[in-house]
């Protein structure tokens, strides 16, 4: 396992499958959740077992930033990669001022995802997409 476990939270089923596939090819174990409630349940089952959380800003049951605040109460050190199809929504997030929080505007490629995670997780040579 090159990269550790990542909690992937995305409500669009096709994109969730693609993200899991990308992350698996990058050497991560991806745990998928389609809403905030499912993400919290997965995270609460193993709070320290995750290297990072990759979440969309807009989820069906809560905002991605609210999910991050909730998860970071349990594990303040968890790395966070926020995604959104609206770059302006990402730019105005107060969370981006916190340590180990980054953003990635949609659409993005596997290489962009690998680079963002490599920087976020302090890995100078992130795994390369296949």
Q: How would you describe what is shown here?
A:
By secondary structure, this protein is α/β, with parallel strands linked by helices. It has a single domain (4-120), classed as Response regulator (Rossmann fold, 3-Layer(aba) Sandwich). It is built from five helices and five strands; from the N terminus they run E-H-E-H-E-H-E-H-E-H. The chain has helices at residues 13-25, 36-44, 64-74, 87-91, 110-120; strands at residues 4-9, 28-33, 52-56, 79-84, 101-105. It has a five-stranded parallel sheet, sandwiched between helices. Helix 3 (64-74) links the parallel strand 3 (52-56) and strand 4. Helix 2 runs parallel beside helix 3 (64-74). The chain is globular. Residues 124-130 have low confidence and may be disordered.
Number of strands: 5
CATH topology grouping: Rossmann fold
Gyration radius (Cα, Å) is 13 Å
Question: N-to-C SSE series?
Answer: EHEHEHEHEH
Helix content: 25-40%
Sheet with the most strands: spatial strand order: 2-1-3-4-5
* Stretches with pLDDT under 50, minimum 5 residues: 124-130
Beta fraction: 15-25%
Distance linking N and C termini: 15 Å
Class from secondary-structure proportions: alpha/beta
**Helix count from the secondary structure assignment:** 5
Tally of structural domains? 1
Shape: globular
What's the arrangement of secondary structure elements?
Layout: E1 4-9, H1 13-25, E2 28-33, H2 36-44, E3 52-56, H3 64-74, E4 79-84, H4 87-91, E5 101-105, H5 110-120
Parallel strand pairs: 1-2, 1-3, 3-4, 4-5
């Amino acid at each position: 396992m090159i990269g550790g476990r990542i909690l992937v939270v995305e409500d669009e089923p096709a994109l969730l499958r693609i993200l899991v596939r990308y992350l698996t090819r990058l050497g991560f174990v991806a745990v998928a959740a389609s809403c905030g409630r499912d993400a919290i349940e997965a995270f609460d089952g193993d709070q320290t077992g995750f290297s990072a959380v990759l979440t969309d800003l807009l989820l069906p049951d809560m905002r991605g930033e609210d999910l991050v605040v909730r998860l970071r109460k349990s594990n303040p050190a968890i790395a966070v990669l926020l995604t959104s199809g609206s770059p302006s929504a990402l730019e105005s997030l107060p969370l981006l001022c916190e340590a180990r929080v980054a953003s990635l505007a949609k659409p993005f490629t596997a290489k962009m995802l690998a680079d963002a995670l490599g920087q976020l997780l302090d890995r100078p040579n992130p795994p390369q997409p296949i």
